[in-house]
Design brief:
This protein is mostly helical. The protein has ten helices and no strands. It has three domains: about 80 residues, Four Helix Bundle (Hemerythrin (Met), subunit A), CATH 1.20.120.1200; about 35 residues; about 45 residues.
Length: about 200
């Protein structure tokens, strides 16, 4: 029990410190590296909670794919740090206002959870036996029953974000040849293939 408590505090403290470094680091590459460390410590916290499947998904998906993708994108982009610093103070009050609003919303949510009459019943509700239901099965059952609509809504949000990213990066540049699917599908054999009979000993001019 003592080892689990020490491990919890270790993972939690390192996760908080690394998350703060993601925000306050001046180099974007360093921010992504701190983000990877945050994901690893969050996975450790999930292991302590008994959610091994969620921990593995966090490591494989977020660390192995998303964070590495962020790292490669940041390294390939030509980011001007000076311009970013100049705009930081300009929009500082906007970020501070949004932060205060988010903190107020979190206070309302946690306050409602503590003062709700059903909170004590939910906290003391009997949990199923660990052998009766696996971690993956419990997560899937909860996700696709009680939160099915929210899961679909999250998928739509990601779809809109993907389409928006494609639209923002799709630039019309002069002198660049692009693929025309309509012309490729409707082309005829006569337009792309020419049969030439070459006599023996003679070439094609």
């Amino acid at each position: 029990m003592i080892i689990a408590t020490l491990a919890f505090y270790l993972f939690a403290i390192v996760a908080v410190i690394s998350a703060l470094n993601v925000i306050f680091q001046r180099n974007p590459v360093h921010s992504v590296l701190w983000l990877i460390l945050t994901f690893f410590n969050a996975a450790g916290l999930f292991v302590l909670l008994g959610a091994e499947f969620v921990a593995m998904i966090l490591v494989v998906v977020y660390v192995g794919a998303v964070a590495v993708l962020f790292l490669f994108v940041v390294m390939m982009l030509d980011i001007n740090i000076t311009v970013i610093r100049e705009g930081f103070l300009k929009y500082l009050w906007v970020g501070a206002t949004i932060g205060v609003i988010l903190l107020a919303e979190l206070a309302v949510v946690f306050g409602g959870w503590v003062m709700s009459p059903d909170a004590q019943k939910l906290r003391t509700a009997p949990a199923p036996a660990p052998d009766a239901l696996s971690n993956t099965e419990a997560l899937g059952s909860l996700l696709y029953t009680n939160y099915a609509y929210l899961f679909q809504a999250a998928g739509l949000v990601l779809l809109v974000a993907m389409v928006g990213a494609i639209v923002l990066t799709l630039r019309r540049r002069p002198g660049v040849r692009k693929q025309n699917i309509h012309d490729q599908v409707n082309r005829r054999v006569q337009d792309t293939l020419e049969i030439v009979k070459v006599e023996t000993g003679k070439g094609v001019s």
